[in-house]
Specification:
Helices cover about 45% and strands about 15% of the residues. It has 29 helices and 24 strands. The longest helix has 27 residues. The radius of gyration is 32 Å and the shape is elongated. About 45% of the residues are buried.
Length: about 725
């Protein structure tokens, strides 16, 4: 089938420009699985636009153009010639089978087939354990056409190979004429092989909005309604407002492996009549093989769905046993599911699911969660009663408009999309039937283990004999008093470790409080670990402690020493009433050592030198002389001080947002943190209930030694007041 290189080149340039200008992000995975052979790509079908961009992606990554079947209704007038020049084959083209077989035998072009036969807008794929898709008002099995083409092509190839080996050239010529095979392609036909490569395309997020593309169409064509309006709203939003398109290529299925189980090639040769090929390739054996192969590639397609946040949220909302669920319980179940999902054998996750700094249960702004809830509210699928999410059950009926479901009920679509992932849905169902108290306990245990696992991984990775401190000093800890429902999150300082706050934690635990000792990422190992961390990594470390404590007690306070104090202040500013109070101990807004102010410049200079691979002149670390050498690092990474500077700046800007009871403690003659920091913190905090206490000391580390008693004597009364 002659293609137009000019048109294909123009199409490539156009698509390059479209995707560059659009907000869509196409991510291709495992394309190296595509063999250098004759390939039929079998693909799930959800949007119109994938019929344009998939051939573009395949050519871009394999260098081979692909034919694709298109509905006969499109092949009219000038559009017919255009489609044919671009590689489209009409479903009613009398030469359809000839064109496709030639492409598969010679391997000159690949073939794209959507076995579902049309766009599956509802993503409903499984019913009563069978693959069934919607078509013309009924559910039917996916087409076996791709399997039939692959098997018949391979039968022809095997016949020609057998004839060639026996030098029966007259019969070889018959096949070459019948399938328009050029003599130059014969060797490739004989040596080749036919494969089916399953492909899954997952879109995230799926939203329907009025958008620029729809407005432009309506400007020229008038108001658009019905299916066209739905498709413009869904797919136009993807292009204009952003969508991640994950294209996963599966393991190639070799057609010859299916034929090895039969004698069909031998039977055709023995038969000897011209009608033998049609007789044997149309018999029950080949039909059964086609169905079996179809089931294999459909299973592969659906198992490669890229699981994302919306899938988890949708399943929780739909499968929760009651129509009401608190926002807190919803986030807990989602947090637990996201962590548990990483233990499954699934291989395809959306990249954001693997990010550690997107903790849904930490009561922070979570773009994915908020977007889902906003869309569900806009579509009338849920209502909010205070902090309770109420599912509108009337919107989730067994019957719905197939062609409008993406627009009207994206939650149903998302739930349907992951139904074939039995291991995932089984895990989600188990989480759904758990009572809230059990979920809380599991979340607590999961995040304790996660925090400890992160430390042990870093400890092992960066361990350095003679420099790495004992594991006990660096590990996060949890002193849980099950008889008291009050707790404290304690955060250590820069270049230190949880061991720095352990003595204070033991005193608070003895007083009856649960205490979680956070370990900030990059700490408790060696300075090289700290040298590549950002302040956001430290903040997320506190968030993990927050999740543990929130699911262990009824009320709790955030407290921190030095840099930990900065993080406590920032947590309080962003979460406020989620805490009963905030305690800041020697938190820096200003540092005493003038060298610290040069860290940003030095860090920038180091970055420039690294970019040009210049090691000479770089100053990555400076000496440190800590109060607690058995805990703190003796080398200070310049990059770390620069990150501390960024954190201090953000904290200072956030102080007016703190409205909860606050206790500010400060050593009177701190040699590291300028004591004026405490005065500035106290003045800028908006809370009407705040205290400032100066502790007489010329040491920075006031949580150890003789000053610890005075620190405890100020903290205990504060805790009693805020926990009343």
């Amino acid at each position: 089938m002659p293609l137009s290189k000019l048109m294909l080149g123009a199409a490539k340039i156009t698509l390059d420009a479209v995707f560059k200008a659009s907000a869509a992000d196409i991510r291709v995975h495992d394309v190296e699985r595509v063999p250098a052979a004759s390939v039929i790509y079998v693909v799930n079908h959800f949007t119109r636009m994938e019929t344009a961009f998939l051939p573009y992606i395949i050519f871009k990554h394999t260098g081979k153009h692909a034919l694709s079947l298109a509905h006969h209704s499109f092949f009219k007038g000038k559009l017919q010639k255009f489609l044919q020049k671009m590689g489209a084959v009409s479903t009613k083209d009398p030469d359809r089978d000839l064109v496709l077989t030639n492409a598969m035998l010679t391997g000159n072009m690949s073939l794209i087939i959507f076995p579902e036969g049309q766009m599956i807008k509802d993503k409903k794929l499984i019913e009563k354990g069978k693959y069934l898709v919607y078509n013309a008002g009924i559910r039917r099995p996916p087409h076996t056409g791709a399997a039939t083409i692959a098997l018949k092509t391979e039968i022809i190839r095997q016949l020609m190979k057998k004839l060639y080996d026996e030098r029966r050239m007259a019969e070889i010529d018959f096949f070459m004429q019948a399938y328009r095979i050029d003599k130059n392609d014969l060797d490739g036909v004989i040596a080749g092989s036919t494969y089916i490569v399953p492909v899954n395309i997952t879109y995230y997020p799926i939203r329907a909005r009025n958008n620029t593309i729809k407005k432009m169409v309506e400007r020229f064509a008038g108001q658009v309604t019905g299916r066209a309006a739905e498709e413009l709203e869904v797919e136009g939003t993807m292009l204009t407002r952003g969508v991640d398109i994950d294209i996963n290529f599966g393991k190639a299925i070799r057609a010859q492996n299916y034929l090895k189980r039969t004698s069909v090639v031998k039977d055709i040769i023995k038969c000897g009549r011209q009608t033998c090929f049609d007789e044997f390739t149309s018999d029950k054996t080949v039909k059964k093989l086609s169905v079996k192969m179809m089931k294999e590639y459909m299973q592969s397609i659906y198992s490669m769905t890229t699981v994302n946040h919306d899938h988890i949220f949708a399943y929780i909302l739909l499968m929760h046993p009651t129509s009401s669920i608190s926002d807190y319980d919803f986030k807990n179940r989602a947090s637990l599911a996201i962590e548990k999902i990483k233990e499954l054998r699934l291989t395809n996750f959306h990249s954001t699911l693997l990010k550690r700094n997107e903790n849904i249960g930490a009561d922070i702004f979570h773009e994915k969660y908020d977007s889902f809830i906003e869309e569900a509210l806009k579509n009338g699928l849920i209502k909010m009663k205070g902090t309770t999410i109420v599912r509108v059950n009337s919107k989730f009926t067994p019957t719905y408009n197939f062609h409008n479901i993406r627009q009207d009920n994206f939650i149903e679509v998302l739930k349907n999309e992951i139904e074939p992932l039995g291991e995932l849905t089984g895990m989600l169902r188990r989480i759904m039937i758990m009572p809230p108290w059990m979920v809380r306990k599991m979340v607590q245990d999961t995040f304790k283990k996660l925090d400890l696992k992160l430390f042990k991984t870093d400890y092992k990775k960066f361990y350095r004999e003679g420099e790495t401190r004992p594991e006990r000093n660096g590990a996060p800890f949890f002193f849980h008093n099950v008889f008291n429902k009050y707790g404290v999150i304690l955060v250590h300082g820069y270049m230190a470790a949880p061991g720095e706050v352990r003595l204070l934690a033991e005193r608070l635990y003895a007083a009856g409080y649960s205490v979680y000792g956070v370990r900030l990422r990059g700490h408790g190992t060696v300075p090289e670990d700290l040298a590549h961390m950002q302040w956001q990594d430290w903040y997320e470390s506190v968030n993990r402690g927050y999740v543990v404590m929130k699911n262990s007690v009824n009320k709790f306070v955030i407290a921190g020493f030095s840099t930990g104090g900065c993080l406590a202040l920032l947590q309080a500013a962003r979460k406020n009433e989620k805490f009963s109070g905030m305690i800041s101990i020697n938190a820096p807004l200003k540092l005493q050592n003038i060298k610290a102010h040069l860290s940003g410049t030095v860090s920038f200079f180091n970055t420039i030198l690294k970019k040009f691979k210049v090691n000479k002149g770089r100053m990555d670390f400076v000496p440190n002389h800590p109060d607690n050498p058995e805990i703190n690092y003796r080398r200070n990474p310049v990059h770390g001080v620069a990150e501390l500077g960024k954190l201090m700046k953000i904290v200072e800007q956030s102080l007016p947002d703190i409205k909860i009871p606050s206790l500010v403690l400060q050593g009177s003659h701190d040699p590291v943190v300028n004591p004026e920091s405490a005065d500035a913190i106290f003045e800028k905090i908006s809370s009407p209930k705040k205290e400032l206490v100066k502790i007489s000391s010329d040491r920075h580390g006031i949580l150890r030694g003789e000053t610890l008693d005075e620190v405890v004597e100020n903290i205990i009364p504060f805790l009693k007041k805020v926990f009343r």
